[in-house]
Predict the structure of Reverse transcriptase domain-containing protein.
Amino acid sequence: MNDLQFKLDNFQKNQQDFQEKFEQTQDDLLNQMRNFMHNLHNEPPGVDKEHEATTDTELPSTEDIQPLPVQEPPQDSDIC
């Protein structure tokens, strides 16, 4: 085997390795894009898709609501 044939074989092997790696990278990228598009419309974890309807039809009573206490500052007898 002469030197030129050896270089040609080596070049072809490197070219084939590069092609295989390139195709694998393309497959990986396509899989990532598919996963992204599939998960794009999914709800985030912990979020319910359907909200439960409430059965309360009666409004809350205002008797249960108490006003906040108001504190007045102490009055000094020296100020007029």
Q: What stands out?
A: The mean pLDDT is 82. The longest helix spans residues 3-40. Helices lie at 3-40.
